[in-house]
Structures are given as C-alpha cells and as structure tokens.
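In the previous chapter we treated chains in isolation. Here, by contrast, the input contains four separate entities that must be folded as one system, with a combined length of 1568 residues.
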Amino acid sequence: MSAPAGPPRRLRLGMVGGGRGAFIGEAHRIAARIDDRYELVAGAFSLDPYRAIESGHDLRLDPTRCYTDYRGMAQAEATRPDGAEVVSVVTPNASHHAICKTFLEAGIDVICDKPLAANLTEAKDLLETARRTGRFLGVTYNYSAYPLMREARALIEAGALGAVRVVQVEFALGWLSTLAESDSKQARWRTDPIQAGPSLVTADLGTHCFHLAEFVTRRRIDALSADLAIMVPGRRLEDNAQISLRFDNGARGAMWVSMVAAGEQVGLRLRVYGELGHIAWDQSEPDQMRLALQGEAVRTIVRGGSGLSAASKRATRLVAGLPEGYYEAFATLYRDYADILTARHAGTAPDPLALLAPGVEDGVRGVAFVEAALQSGVQGGAWVAMPGSGPD
Amino acid sequence: MSAPAGPPRRLRLGMVGGGRGAFIGEAHRIAARIDDRYELVAGAFSLDPYRAIESGHDLRLDPTRCYTDYRGMAQAEATRPDGAEVVSVVTPNASHHAICKTFLEAGIDVICDKPLAANLTEAKDLLETARRTGRFLGVTYNYSAYPLMREARALIEAGALGAVRVVQVEFALGWLSTLAESDSKQARWRTDPIQAGPSLVTADLGTHCFHLAEFVTRRRIDALSADLAIMVPGRRLEDNAQISLRFDNGARGAMWVSMVAAGEQVGLRLRVYGELGHIAWDQSEPDQMRLALQGEAVRTIVRGGSGLSAASKRATRLVAGLPEGYYEAFATLYRDYADILTARHAGTAPDPLALLAPGVEDGVRGVAFVEAALQSGVQGGAWVAMPGSGPD
Amino acid sequence: MSAPAGPPRRLRLGMVGGGRGAFIGEAHRIAARIDDRYELVAGAFSLDPYRAIESGHDLRLDPTRCYTDYRGMAQAEATRPDGAEVVSVVTPNASHHAICKTFLEAGIDVICDKPLAANLTEAKDLLETARRTGRFLGVTYNYSAYPLMREARALIEAGALGAVRVVQVEFALGWLSTLAESDSKQARWRTDPIQAGPSLVTADLGTHCFHLAEFVTRRRIDALSADLAIMVPGRRLEDNAQISLRFDNGARGAMWVSMVAAGEQVGLRLRVYGELGHIAWDQSEPDQMRLALQGEAVRTIVRGGSGLSAASKRATRLVAGLPEGYYEAFATLYRDYADILTARHAGTAPDPLALLAPGVEDGVRGVAFVEAALQSGVQGGAWVAMPGSGPD
Amino acid sequence: MSAPAGPPRRLRLGMVGGGRGAFIGEAHRIAARIDDRYELVAGAFSLDPYRAIESGHDLRLDPTRCYTDYRGMAQAEATRPDGAEVVSVVTPNASHHAICKTFLEAGIDVICDKPLAANLTEAKDLLETARRTGRFLGVTYNYSAYPLMREARALIEAGALGAVRVVQVEFALGWLSTLAESDSKQARWRTDPIQAGPSLVTADLGTHCFHLAEFVTRRRIDALSADLAIMVPGRRLEDNAQISLRFDNGARGAMWVSMVAAGEQVGLRLRVYGELGHIAWDQSEPDQMRLALQGEAVRTIVRGGSGLSAASKRATRLVAGLPEGYYEAFATLYRDYADILTARHAGTAPDPLALLAPGVEDGVRGVAFVEAALQSGVQGGAWVAMPGSGPD
C-alpha cells in the first residue's frame, strides 16, 4: 500500500508593509493562514527599524529576516535556499510599482494589493516585467473572491439573465465625511497624492467596482463619463465620483464611489440586469444574493446551497447558513494563488477555477480605468474611451 | 349648546380618463374615497360611447353625466348648479395640456396626473392659465405624499443630515423588458410618441424621481448629464436612462430610471447623504426609512413612531406597525387638495402642511427636467443647465 | 343593446361603538368605504349623548339616527324602510354578546369585532341565535384577509409544503410594557375584567393567532398547554402567554402572545413548517411571504405576483410592488361580507372565495380557545383538550 | 532598549475525532489556526488505522503521532517532552466522557465539543475530575462567542433593557426533514442512541440555546415544560421539541429546537425582552443585532461599530461592515482558551474577558437541561425543576 498523496508543502511567504497596527497587512496574513498553504518567513514591515523588528517579533519571525528596506529583503531572500518564494505587497499605492518590480526582477512571485500602480505607464511596466521574468503577479481584488460573486459570474455565463443590459455598482464609505486626514495615519496617506497617487476614491474603491463589474458580467467597459468632486474642503483628492458606464455589448451602467457617504460602513453593492432578470448583492451580507427573474418569485441564493456552480462551491468552506466573511473570501484568493504557484513549481496546470483569482492583466485594466476617469473628470465629464490595456 | 363644527362638505369630483380596467383612474378614485372628502359626480371615462357609459355605470353615476368628450363635459358641468367643482385628469400624457386648459378655462379646478404636459411650452401655458383663471392645478407626484418622504424632508430641513452632498435615486421596473407594447394597451400608449410625448422613462419615472429628490432635499437640481438608451429593439422611446445630477449647493447625484430592469417590480428608491449621515427609503416598504448617522447605530424610522414631525403625522392614519400603502399616500394628496380647495371656497388659508401636495409649479419643473434630459441625451451626454421654470 | 349589468347597490350600514377618537371603529369605516359597497346610515357611537351626536356629525349622519342606546337603535332601524341592514359592533369585548344578540333578534345582520364574546356560553348562544334567526354574523379576524395569508392557505391546500408539522405563531406588542392603564382609556378597558372579560392577551391577540393558524393550515388545534403571566405589577389580567399547541394531525406548535414585548409594535408573525418546506410571514410587511422549500433557494412570494392563487388574487387590488396595507385587508373582509349579504338578499350563492371571511363558527372557536388556555393556566400548564365548538 | 514583549508561544494541540471529511473537526482546526496560537501536533482522528494516518497526512502531521486509540495517544503524548498540552475532543457525544476523563487524568487540558456528556452523572464526573486533576476543561458552545452575543450580554448587564421578562430562542434545521440517517454518516450517529446518547435535538441544538439564553441574560432557567416529538417515522430520537421556560427572576420564555424545520438552514435566533426594550439576533447574519427600545426608533447594532462594549470589541477583528462569520467566532473561543491556558502556565490570571468562554460548569448545566427536558417529556410536559448542577 503506498502512502496517500499528501497536501502540497507550505509556500514560503514574505511581506512588504503591514507593520503593527496596519489593517490590510493583517488581513493578508490571516487570509494566508486559514487554509494553511503558506508559512510567513520574512518581512519588511516598516521603514522604521524599531517598528520593523517589533512587527516581526509579533509574528514570531527570525529577527534577521525582518528588514527595513524591501531592496535588501529581495536580495537576501532571493539568495537564501529557504528564502521567501512569494511576497505580499501591502504598502501605499504609489510604492507598488517599485516594490513589485524589485521582487519580480529578483525572481520572486508577488501578490500585490490593489490598485496595481499609480498610473498606467507603471502598471504596464509591471505587466511587461512579469512577462519578461516569467514571474507571477496577482492583484488582490478580494471582493470578487466572495463565493457568490463567482456564482454570479457562473450564472451569467450560463445565460441565466440573458444578455446584460444594465450594471449598477457602488462602493460607499462614510469614513472620510470629515477631514479625518488631520488625525488618522491611514486617512493621511490615502488622501496624499504623493503616497496614494493622483486619485482617492476612483483608485481605492473604483478599481474594486470596475473589476467586479467586468468579472461578473464577462463584458468589458469601453467608455465612461465621470463627475469627480471634492466634498470636504481642504481635501486634495476626489472623495466622490459619479461615473456613467458603457459596455462593449451596448449595456449601460452607473458607478458611485464615495468616502463621504456619511452613515455607510462598507457599502459595496452590485446589481446586474439582463434581458431575463437581475442579480443583486451587498458585500456586508455576502452569503446571500438576490436572483430575480422577470415574472417569477425572487429567489435568495445562499452560499453553500444546493445546485450552485463549481466555481462557488470551490470557494466555499462552510455549509449554507453558517456565515463566512471577509477573511474567508480573501483566503480563497490566497489559496488560488497557492494552487497557481504550486502548479508552476510542478510544471503542471492549476485547476482552471484557480485562475478566477485576478492577475496582472486585471491589475493593469483597473489602473487604465482610473486614468480614463481622471481624464473624463478633467474634461468636465466628457465620454472617454478606455485605453487599451495590453503592453504598449 | 351650539352644534359641534361639522366636517367640510364633500367636493363634487369629475374625472377624465380612467375607464373600466384603467389602473391609475381607479387609484385616483379609491384615493378620493378613503377620507370621504369627495363625491364622484361625472366623468368622461372613454372616447368610446359604450365604454364611457359602462364605466360610469360601474360607478353608479347618472348616465347623463357620463360624457364621451371632455369639452362637452366641461361645458355641461360648469353650468350645472351641482356640477363638478374639480376634475381629475388621468389620460395619456400628451393630452394633459388640452384637457387641463379646457377645465381651467371653464372655471373648474384640476388634479392632473404627472407629467403635467408633453413639453415645456405646454406646461408653462398651463401655469399661465391657472394664474390667469385663478384656478387650482395640482399634479399627483403621489410618492412624495408617503409619510416618510415628508418625514425625510422635515428631518433634512431640521438639519439632521447637515448639508446635502449626494442624492441617489432610482425608479426601475422590469415591465417593458420585452416588447410588451405589441400586446398590452397600457404599454402601447406609453411607448407611443403620439400619445406619450417624446419620452418614456424620463417622463414617466424620471419626473417622480426628480420631484422626490427636490422635495426631500429642498435643493434644486441645476444641471444634468443624461445617457438615454433604447434597450429593446423595435421600441421608439428611451427605456433606460442614467442621469448624473448637480444641485444648486454643489451636491451631486445619480438618477437611474428604467423599464427594462428585469425582475424589478416597482423599484423606486431614494437615498440622501449629508455631512452627518443619510436616509434611505424604498417605496415597496414605505413605512420604514433608514436613518444612518455617521458613528451611530443605524435607526429604522417607522411611520407613526414617536417623535416624528408634524408633516408626517398629518399624513398618517394608522399606528406604527399596522402598514399603510400606496392608496393611503395617494389619499393624502386628495385630502390635501380637498383642504386647499375647501379653504379657497371659504376664503381662508389652508393648513400650511396641505401645501406639501405638489402644484402646477412642481408640474412645470418636472417637464423642464424631461426637456433638459432629452437635450443632454441628444448632445451625447453633455451637461445641460435646467431651464428656468417660471412662465416666460 | 341592453344596459350593462351594474354594480350591486350599497348596503345600509350601522355601527355600535366607534365614537370620535376610537381606533377600531374608524378602521371598520374606512374598510367599508374603500370598495364602495356600504353607506353608513346610523350609529350608536357612545353612551354619552353629546359624544354620540358629535361622532355622528363628524360622519355627516342624520342626527336622528345617532343613538345613545343600541337597543333603541335596533328597534328604530329595524322598523324604518331605509333602516340599517347590517351593523358593525366595535365595542369592548364583554358587551359583544348582548349587542350582537339584540341586532340578530331584530333581523339585522352583524359584523362583530373579535373576540366574539367573553365566554364560551355566550359565544355558543350567538351561534344558536344566528342559526335560529337566519341572520349572518361575521367576526373580523382581519389578519386572515391579507392576500398572502389566503395565498398561504391555498399553497398548503395544494400540498406545496406536504403535511404540516410545526406552527410557530406570535403576536407581540410593547404597548403595555408599563402600567399604561393608569393613563390611557383604551388600555383601561382592555385590562379591566368587567369590560374586557377574563383575559387580556389570550383574548385580544391569541384569538387572532389561533384563527390564523387554523385558517392557513386547515388543521384544527386540539390541545394546548398555557403558561400565563402578569408581568407588570398592578395589572389584573394576563399580559404574557406562552402556549404549546398540538394539532389534530400530530403537528406541534407554539404561540406567544404578549403586550409587554417592549420595543415591538405589531409583531404578528406566522410560520408553518411542513414535510417539504415552510412559509413565513410578518404582518408589518404583509406584501411579502417567504416560501422555503428544503433543498431549494428561498423564494419571496409577493402579493400580486404572477402565478398566485385565485384566493389571493381576489383579495388584491394593486400590482405587485405597490404596497397594500391594513385597511385594504380589512376592506377585503367588508367586501366579502357584502358579497355574502348581497347574495343572500338575491337568494343566490356568493362567490365561494367570499366565504373565506370568518363567520360565527370561527368566532365561537376563538372563544373556546381562550377558555381552554385560561383553564390550562389555572391548572399550572396542564394539557387541555379544546372543547367542542358546536352549539350544545 | 529591551526587546519588545513577544507574543505567547503556540500551544501544542492534539485532536480526538475530526478525521478526513468531518465537519466539526475542521472547524476546530481552522478556529485554532486563525489567531496563530496553536500548533497541531498529534491526533486520533479515526478508529480506522488507514483513515487515521491519512487524516494526519492531510494535516502534515508526523505519522508516529497519528493514533487510532485515544488512550494510547493520551499516554504517549503525556510522556513526550514535546507532547500535546491540550486536546480538542470532537467525537460523537456519547464518547465525550471517557475521552475527556482520560486526557484530564493524563494531565492534559481539554477543549470538548458540546454537549459535554450523555447524561448528568457523566457530566458531573468530568467536573469532579477537572477539579481533582487541576486541568482545564472548556466546552465549545461556539455561538456565544459571536461578538454581538457578548455585546448583548454586556448591554443587559448594563441595564439597557431593564429586568428581563421574556426570552424567545430557537434553533431550527431542515436537515433531518426526511429519514436522512439511512444515507448520511453524520445523520446516522446523531440519531443513534448508542452514539449520540438519549437525545437528538435537545442535546445537539437545545444545549446551544440554553447556554445562549443564560449567557446573554445572566439569569438561570429554573424550570421547564417540554413537548418532545418524533416527526419522521422510523427515527429513534426526538427531532422536534417545544419547551416552555421559567427563569429565576420570574421571566418566561420559549425554546424551539428542530431538525425537521424544512427549508431552514441554520436557524438559530435569540430574542430577549426586558422592561425597556428587546434585542434580536439571527446567527445567519451575526454581525448585526436589533436593539429596540420602547418608544424609540429601532437601532441596528453592528459588530465593530462605535460605542460597543469591551467584551465585544475583544472578540472583533474587522471594522464594521466587513463581515466576520462562524470561523471567527469559533476562533475567539480558541483564543480565549489559549489566554486562559497561557496564564495558567505562567501562574497568572487571564484577561477576565477570556473567561466568557464556556467552561466545564457550563457544560454540566447544559447536560442538566437535557435531562430535565427528557424528564418533562416523559411526564407529558409536566413542569420540571432544573437539577442542581454542582458536583454531588
């Protein structure tokens, strides 16, 4: 009797950014931990040496692998036999390009938070770099990993709604209803053009909406008209945007992204209307999705329920009725990336469903969207065609 | 001991349109009946003589007062001592101007369904006619009569949300997802430019949204950018519109109106975000409204609950928890109009809260909105300023 | 060409109770008005002569038909050629028996609010009286007239849930969380054994639940175990009851009725579980009902939606998505009673669906339930069989 | 400058039960992993040697520490210097006593799934054993670890609802609506008196409800009346129970537990009514809780929102609006147990809030409840006093 096939070995993970107290770094770490496919081995958690060590200490890391400089980390880890194989980049947006490029060049795969880069030139350069080096570059549009967003995609692909006609998507937060950047560190960098790049809500929230809309509908947005506004006096980047959308098949849509939507917590909501009916989903109750077909009773699709697609089943851990949440969806991305990387190491093809996890092309496309929206905004809401998103 | 002051006498009501099987005519009649302030005495229910008589018979009307021609009705009723004092006009949109004008000129007050007219010239002419004849002309934007829409207005007026920043409003139906006009009489006239005028969803649904947004916020929309589309091949008027809004205080907004929103029934929803929080309301559950103030637990305001404004209390009949609906809101308009007309007859001032019921100026403004949206649509979504809405 | 068949003539309606300011009398009047099948002609609105006249004056009644004494009213109206044909009885519970009996004996039909009587002896006497005099006696369990409760009954009758196994029903109000009877007139009579009879929540709320459970399931409750409590010190009747139920087919259930459920408004909720799935309904959102079949996505059945039963369609006025409420359901009872009475006058059979409106047998059964619950309560929660509910 | 204080070392964890495909074992493992406070080192996953090895292999365990027999595991691990310090027991109910006792006697702490034992004698013996050996024994009533259940407890403790008057709690599944035990392994053991003990729903679901009700209210249930039923022919244990409750302060309540509630997934719902208002919570949307105070607008309390108690904040990882779920609540128990055990090892006191995690006394009390309910059921629903739950 031969030994049963074991689980794949854990991938050696590094992290750039995500020091003590950082929200998104901790989310990436818990996501990596849930399915036990990674082992955190190194990090450049902070530019401040004390904080870098302290943050690594919290994570029981070897102090010699707690770096203050991502370049040093890339060099050191790339040369160790037990070095990090993949790094998570969870720093402010404007630094993504330099950091990702460094690791790719060092032969290390990368999982980068969104948006991929501060502008389209940088984003395309990362696409080119990834292709040239043969490294993997994933971009964590984590909301599309919720099981029911994968179910929505599968439903639409199967024709359940007929041709898509209208997409309504919004991501509304009340977080920056006041000039919070005077008090909060996270608010400060996000509203600072030097650290965040040229956009606030379009980049931070709009890229999620854009990806989700294209992911679920499998259609491309090809033009948009944006009305960008700064609602809070003293702020330097747009905190509210109303964006009209046109899709490649003639469908229309509207996107609203705002950080001045007082009273909202994490108001990410998507509705897709086709010829036959619509789906509606709200991130704050991610385990249910409305499916309303014209002339039939509205159905509530529940994660884990019977009759769901392979795509959503694969992203599901618990039976219907026991809630999963934000970490589990994020963990699905990490598990997908682990499958992709493990298959690469083995020279095999990953489960095709793992490829639902967004890659560098999706990252480039999101940055192209931000540029188009900014351009429309400058032109007083003129309709702007989406730029091509391949390498130049 | 003197006799107690009695209730005002019933007003003698006529109706134009609303023959057997018509939806909106029956709604007006039930609305008029609920508070027992009107007595239906005459009608021109149909151009078809048999149907006109038959419809009047259903309503136990004197056959001699069942007209086939609104002109004859106006003349006859204006000269009878017991003639109709006020008529409800519930015909297809494009006929509103001629009918309303005829009755106003005959000295009879008018309650007209929305939109007031097929174009701004006609609408302004009705405004001028009403002023000249001294007659009353109400326009039944019935949704603003829901108690919680009056509460929302009172809350915002009292500063509960701070300055308004963003308005999201939509009215989405799935009714015309297919080319229903080939089968359904109501679908046929609404999609026929001759009977309906030059707009479908903007006129039929957009005017409700427009009125509601201005009514609740007490701000004026002063510019808009519209993306109008015909989604169902063979249709002659726009069945989907995405409209970006700018308000006179710098607030932004988006309106979506659609009759191709498959799976929606009567999806009229309004959200208003201010500096401090937002309100959210859905017509299909009209007795509750979300009030979310930044940093506080979301509250569900319930019609009839304690602490509500005089404006919503006056529009409330039942205790909190016993549901009111569409007819009761419509009845509130009829009661308000009865109060206004009764006060006019007595030469006194009505309860100021009765004046929340929309009048001819609101009707003109709605038609101005439709014209602006059509103009923006023709110009590829250019921002168009709202035309002045006073008489020229 | 013969004249089209007209609508039936309006029935001449009288009312006992329901003076100025009374809630339930006004509800009966609006219910009677909505479908225009009744004309209010007389009333004994109050024992206080001034209030009796004043209340009639509010309703534009002839002062000579505003009585202070129901006996005088019965005698006078029974002998007028244009006298009331049917009276609504909306007085405190303990007076129902004497009033209903007087009108039945005078040859006048009766629509009585629930509970029918203060004890089973009285209730059975009314059943006997109605049979003997050949008069009609309806009992307004108004909640079973909501269209979706009729839909639920039709669904279960059609086998959609399989055999019923569990019924959970509750009617919870916060109204009497404090000793409100010291301030409020309505609270005073309801908590006074002389006016209300021997039960508070079991009679006022429990009879609704009991009727609804039997109406929807078409099964009979045949035993119960009740835990009755007085939660507010100083109160004289039970303000909270937990009642376990057994049905004639072996199904089990629980009923909770309370007026000390602080924070509840009108918390009437019903769930019925069968072998295949369940329905769930909440009176405060009466236009929707959950239908959950095991192994399928939950469906939301909407009043007016396609595919609904004849029984609920007949009780529906508005299209799906435009809300109906409490008055419309109550009006359905009045319309049903009008159909029944009009058919009796014509010597024909009414629409069988009109017979869904509850009659005297349902009234007797509700009183039998109250007696059984009180008996169980006295015996420390012993299981008590429901008494027979026919005439002795 | 001294090194920053590090995180506590990981506890060495073993597991009994939870082989490949088992649901609850995997939940315990993920829960243990999320906060990185445990390292899984050994397991007796199955009595079947191949499956035991295979299950350990899936988890990358040393094959020499994959046992088939928990006794051998206890002996071996207790004597290794790197042996398991704490074991999770996730086997069928009837085996809990023997397994827990074995590990406690071997000096190893235990985290046991609920119910603690198959009868009160066994449960009390475990309490006595834990006290005698000085070992810790936690019982995973995981639902009370949801942040908002801790918030509810804190609110009630702070007097927000006044004295508790009514508790309505239910746990309804549709899972066993048919005789699923003929096909499903998990259904088989749970409905088999030999493996499950003498109760199905009362033990499996009722103990959760019982614990939650007492945990949140901080009151004790002191008597109950149970109506137990077998609804599916051929089943050997009760699959539906209606239980009336009386609390030590005079409050009343009802519990409904069922596995034949067709169409329900995980219908665990709790409502607590006090003098001033109530809270309502549904496990399937665990991040929100209704707080309804009489005379005020209903508030929706959201996990992570501002103004929440220290108890719920400590159990919260994500900001309000990003959903947490079942695993995170379970992980909170594991983190609490880690805090308790780490403090014991250090000879210090744990954070008092960690002691909200249920211990052996809570386990005993749950088993006492099951015995009382069975006794009442046998006596035809007689009221039975809860037995004392201390050691005899």
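The mean pLDDT of chain D is 95. Chain D touches chain B at residues 291, 295-302, 305-307 (CB under 8 Å). Compare these points with the single-chain example from earlier in the chapter.
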